[in-house]
Amino acid sequence: MMGNEMAGNTMWAGHWLWMLVIAIVAVIPAWRICQRTGYPGFLGFLILIPLVNLVLLYFLAFAQWPAEKARRHDE
Questions:
Q1: I want to staple 30 with a disulfide (CB 3.0 to 4.6 A). Which of 3, 14, 47, 58 is the partner?
Q2: Of 66, 20, 69, nearest to 43 (Cα)?
Q3: How many CA atoms lie within 13 A of 2 on its CB side?
């Protein structure tokens, strides 16, 4: 009985560690994309929220980027 509880706790800790790694792998590129398009980088955290992440991707794909507007203004 005690052996099963210990294995469950180990898997639980491993699960959260794995989720943290996946979150970091997903957030860093999303953060950089948001910065390069001219939006605040913290919007990259939205990539972790189901369905909101799809809205973020569509928003970035079809919105007028502030960085693009600034580039046009400089020309």
A1: 47
A2: 66
A3: 0
Please report the pLDDT score of residue 28 as a whole number. Answer: 96
Query: Do residues 63 and 38 make contact, with C-beta atoms less than 8 angstroms apart?
Result: no
The reported pLDDT for the residue numbered 59 is: 95
pLDDT score for 10: 62
pLDDT of 22 > 80? The answer is yes
Where are the chain's structural domains? 2-74
pTM above 0.90, yes or no: no
Pairwise CA distance, residues 49 & 52, whole Å = 5
Q: What's the N-to-C CA distance of the chain in angstroms?
A: 72
